[in-house]
Amino acid sequence: MSTKKDYSVETLRGFAIILVVMGHVIGSGSDGGMKVADDSGWRHLYFTFEYLRMPLFTVISGWVYALRPVSLEKYKAFTTKKVRRILYPMVFVGTAYFLLQYIVPGTNKTGNLAEIWKIYVFPYTLYWYLPSLFWVFLAVGLLDAFKRLDKFGHWAIWTAVAFALLLVRDMVIPEASPNYLSYKGGIYLFPFFMIGVGIQRFKGFFGNVWLNRALAVVFIAGLAIQQLGWFDIIQYNLDKKSGMGLLIGVTGTILFFRLKWKIDWLIYFGSFAYSIYLFHSFGTAAGRIVLKSMGISQDIPIFLFSLAVGMFAPILAEKILDRWGWTRMLFLGRSYAPPKKVDATPKPMTRRVV
Questions:
Q1: Burial (CB count within 10 angstroms: exposed 0-12, middle 13-18, buried 19+), residue 236
Q2: pLDDT band at 77 (very low <50, low <70, confident <90, very high)
Q3: Across residues 69-73, what is the average pLDDT?
Q4: Measured between alpha carbons, how far is 209 from 269 in angstroms, rounded to an integer?
Q5: Cα dihedral 81, 82, 88, 93 sign
Q6: Can you state the angle between helices 129-145 and 53-66, rounded to 10 degrees?
Q7: How far apart are CA 143 and CA 153, in angstroms?
Q8: 112-142 pLDDT, tens per residue?
Q9: Terminal C-alpha separation, the chain
Q10: What is the pLDDT of residue 354?
Q11: Which pLDDT belongs to residue 1?
């Protein structure tokens, strides 16, 4: 079944991946990325989009998945495909990044080679997202296989369950407990993925004008509280696990889907979003190291150059890796054989001779 692309969603995907790369250029803390101070304007920029980056990426994934629901007969094949699409790159791209940090001088973190096995069992830098999303695909695919998401009532119940699981994770599961295969991240992503499924399947509900006006009020109020908390004007928990962070993420991602923007250059980056996600850390690190080796230490040129390399280097990497079956499969998560090109040239009509 061929599905026509929605270019407003592709625009959103491009916007989301730029936010992700920007975040990793800056770094989540003063010991990563550009190593900026925790009270700097750069950290404020990182913090402003913290509640929207991965939630938006995940809502888009849920929306795209919902275009092709899984049947019980195809669940095994669906799982096998997700192993290839998600876990193969997790292992091979993650290993390459670990070895890069170990070998190349000037990277922010150098791991212990004897502990490389941990990157396959526990969350590893930005690649925590891959096993987390894999668990979500398995869970939602199973619900779809048993027709538990085909009606609005069913979807609403399971979305409520997803939010309840997130509450259990934050209030019951100890922070120090081992996060095997990033299952805690999967619990975090689950409700956002379900929202994406709902936006695609229940357009009447999510298109309600009054609902969207209410979401806009909550979203703007949440952003205001977030910013006032940053500047210490009010007392506010800046942690991503705070209820306000979840509220901003939920309302913001739904509202972004209502914008229906179609911007060509964002659509272009959106078409390479997965490869950019997989390989942008190689580019951002290289950009930062190159400029510092040239004696350039100012934040603005480092940010802009690292962002540019982080966006374009993965596109080049995809084009190179896609040439060979084994690299296409292991590093991009695609099938070993490239899809056959369909000849759309009209063929002349011929008369059948009996």
A1: middle
A2: very high
A3: 94
A4: 30
A5: positive
A6: 30
A7: 13
A8: 899 999 999 999 999 999 999 999 999 999 9
A9: 34
A10: 32
A11: 45
| Residues 6 or more apart whose Cβ sits within 8 Å of residue 24 | 33, 126, 280, 281, 284, 310
Structure tokens at 103: 């070998």
Q: Which amino acid would we find at residue 43?
A: R
> Rounded to an integer, what is the distance from CA 230 to the centroid of its chain?
25
- Exposure pattern of 21-35 as b/e (b: 16+ CB <10 Å)? bbbbbbbbeeeebbe
3-state secondary structure the chain: CCCCCCHHHHHHHHHHHHHHHHHHHHCCCCCCCCCCCCCCHHHHHHHHCCCCHHHHHHHHHHHHHHCCCCCHHHHHHHHHHHHHHHHHHHHHHHHHHHHHHHHCCCCCCCCCHHHHHHHHCCCCHHHHHHHHHHHHHHHHHHHHHCCCCCCHHHHHHHHHHHHHHHHHHHHCCCCCCCCHHHHHHHHHHHHHHHHHHHHHHCHHHHCCHHHHHHHHHHHHHHHHHHHHHHCCCCCCCCCCCCHHHHHHHHHHHHHHHHHCCCCHHHHHHHHCHHHHHHHHHHHHHHHHHHHHHCCCCCHHHHHHHHHHHHHHHHHHHHHHHCCCHHHHHHHHCCCCCCCCCCCCCCCCCCCCCC
Q: What does the alpha-carbon distance between residue 89 and residue 97 come to, in Å, rounded to a whole number?
A: 11
Q: Please, are residues 155 and 198 in contact by the beta-carbon 8 Å criterion?
A: yes
Please check whether residue 64 is in contact with residue 137, taking contact to mean a CB–CB distance below 8 angstroms: no
Q: For residue 346, what pLDDT is reported? A: 47
> How many residues would you count in the chain?
354
